[in-house]
Amino acid sequence: MRKLMIVAMALLFSTTAFKSNGNPVKSVGNLAESARNSALFAAQQVQTDTLKTDAKDPVCGMKVKKGATLTHTHDKTTYGFCSKSCKKSFVSNPDKYLKK
Fold first, then answer.
1. What are the C-alpha distances in Å from 81 to residues 4, 5, 19, 67?
2. DSSP E strands: which ranges in the chain?
3. Mean pLDDT in residue range 74-93
4. Quick one: angle between helices 29-46 and 84-92, nearest 10?
5. Are 35 and 9 in contact (CB under 8 A)?
6. Is the pLDDT of residue 71 over 60?
7. Do the Cβ atoms of 4 and 39 come closer than 8 Å?
8. 39 or 28, which is more confident
9. 8 A C-beta contact, residue 72 and residue 48
10. Pick from 16, 19, 29, 89: most CB atoms within 10 A?
11. How many CB atoms lie within 10 A of CB 56?
């Protein structure tokens, strides 16, 4: 929760910069976008379930054993992943991997 609050504060302070005359101006979006992505990913990492049966990683096709905790639930289906990078790829665009 603390990490999420820190990311939210970073997002709040990074989206607006002030000129010397006091007029707010939008800052360059890289820091704000990074903070938003971090907050989104942190929120997604909180969701953890264990895989009930052996499965196949929807991103790379590797076998994932029953009991794995690197999971994500999408449309009421829990998917297991072999690595954090496969999970991150799936979470960012699940439809891309479910159309295979």
1. 24, 27, 46, 11
2. 16-18, 24-26, 55-56, 63-64, 71-74, 77-80
3. 94
4. 110
5. no
6. yes
7. yes
8. 39
9. no
10. 89
11. 13
Instruction: Give the type of residue at 73.
Output: T
Characterise 75 by phi-psi region: left (phi > 0), alpha (psi -120 to 50), beta (else).
left
Q: Mean pLDDT across the chain, nearest whole number?
A: 76
**Distance (Å, whole) CA 94 – CA 18:** 38
Share of the chain above pLDDT 90, in %: 47
Question: How far is 37 from 39, CA to CA, in rounded Å?
Answer: 5
Q: What is the DSSP letter of 28?
A: P
pLDDT band, residue 4 (cuts 50/70/90): low
Cβ(11)–Cβ(35) under 8 Å? yes
Q: Which two tokens stand for residue 37?
A: 């992505």
How far are the Cα atoms of 11, 20, 21, 32, 86 from residue 17, in angstroms, in the given order?
Answer: 12, 10, 11, 11, 36
Q: Is the model's pLDDT at 88 over the cut of 80?
A: yes
Give me the residues paired with residue 80 across strands: 71
